[in-house]
Design goal:
By secondary structure, the protein is of the alpha/beta class. The chain contains 10 helices and 10 strands. It has a 10-stranded mixed β-sheet with strand order 4-3-5-6-2-1-7-8-10-9, sandwiched between helices.
Length: about 375
């Protein structure tokens, strides 16, 4: 009897071990299957790397054009190096100060962005979705039929020069820089900036927003570009939308308003505002301003974003850098006496240093508003 019990015990142990091993293999198989293998579009990324001055491999061109590209590549790298220093400092500050919400933000909203993809990505590198919008038209995302020659290189050089020098795109200059025979909108610049940050593009699609506030496929007349992309070596697929639209109350597309009202409440939203021309100060932009205040978990901005007086008791405020009067080229009413008082009196001893230049002002200022 004891012998039978002994063998019964051994048999049950073996069954348990086999069961555990099978479950372990099943779990391993499931885990492996859930890891998405991401692959970029070879033609698109070949073009983005070329225009970003990264690689001319397998691009047919004359010796003259090749030499011109070499010079262009060196200049772009120098221009990028200056901005890269500031972005490293931003990343360091964000890592130290925004740890309470940085990794939780899954949706980044950036109105008045132009083609600035790099700065919101630096502050919130792990978000699933980035929504940029501005007056500039979308244009051709990137031509996979690569054009060589000085004229082509110079168009990209000119489009990036002020941005990489000043950290923002100048609206008046973009009318010419992003509307010529080589670059016909924001799309080409967005595409090549992804390459400079070591991102691979999976796909680029043109969309539009329908009357139900949904993104739907569109032909070339659509005003939305959708990028699917990922960081090289990563398994996290991310999405960027650029919407060509006007946020002024009287010009606001009702489809876009509905899209924002439907989409943002579903996410943990971080809003970024930089060099926003003080538009959100005025009552002509109340709808866009209220959407940002109502739906954002956090707002990071310089003084050209939402006026200090519009932040209510829903938010805790942290100030950075130094505030001074706006540039003379802006309306005198953009000066904020209450923000100056906050810097000089209310937040004395609590203002944090800002070790980089950002936006219009020098020295620069930042405000971080956390929803309570």
């Amino acid at each position: 009897m004891k012998s039978i019990n002994f063998f019964t015990f051994i048999f049950s142990v073996l069954l348990t071990l086999i069961s555990c091993s099978t479950k372990s293999q099943d779990h391993s198989s499931t885990t492996s299957a859930t890891k998405k293998i991401l692959k970029g579009d070879e033609s698109i990324n070949k073009a983005t790397r070329f225009y970003a001055g990264i690689s001319k491999e397998n691009v047919e061109m004359s010796e003259k054009d090749s030499k011109a590209w070499d010079e262009y590549s060196q200049e772009i790298k120098k221009m990028l190096a200056a901005g890269a220093t500031a972005r490293k400092q931003i990343d360091s500050l964000a890592n130290a100060d925004f740890g309470d919400f940085r990794s939780k933000i899954d949706f980044v909203y950036y109105p008045f962005s132009g083609a600035d993809f790099l700065y919101p990505l630096t502050i919130f590198p792990d978000a699933d979705t980035y929504l940029l919008c501005g007056l500039e038209k979308t244009g051709t995302p990137i031509s996979t039929k690569i054009k060589t020659g000085y004229s082509q290189y110079n168009s990209y050089r000119t489009a990036l020069k002020s941005f990489l020098r000043d950290s923002y795109f100048i609206t008046l200059m973009m009318k010419d820089d992003l509307d010529n025979e080589n670059i016909d909108g924001v799309g080409p610049v967005l595409s090549m900036l992804m390459a400079t940050a070591d991102y691979e593009i999976i796909s680029i699609e043109t969309k539009k927003i329908d009357s139900n506030g949904n993104l739907v496929p569109a032909d070339t007349s659509g005003n939305v570009l959708q990028y699917k992309f990922f960081k090289k070596g990563a398994t996290h697929e991310q999405t960027l939308y650029y919407v060509s639209t006007n946020l002024r109350n009287t010009d606001l597309d009702p489809n876009y308003k509905l899209f924002i009202d439907k989409t943002l409440p579903k996410h943990t939203v971080g809003t970024y505002l930089k060099a926003a021309s003080y538009m959100l100060h005025w009552n002509t932009f109340t709808t866009a301003r209220n959407q940002i205040l109502d739906y954002s978990k956090c707002i990071i901005q310089d003084d050209s974003g939402i006026a200090y007086r519009h932040f209510d008791s829903r938010f805790d405020i942290t100030l950075y850098g130094k505030y001074k009067r706006p540039l003379p080229s802006f309306d005198k009413r953009t000066y904020q006496p209450d923000l100056m008082k906050a810097y000089e009196e209310e937040f004395v001893g609590k203002i944090k240093p800002l070790p980089f230049h950002i936006g219009y002002s020098e020295p620069s200022n930042w405000l971080c508003a956390r929803r309570k």
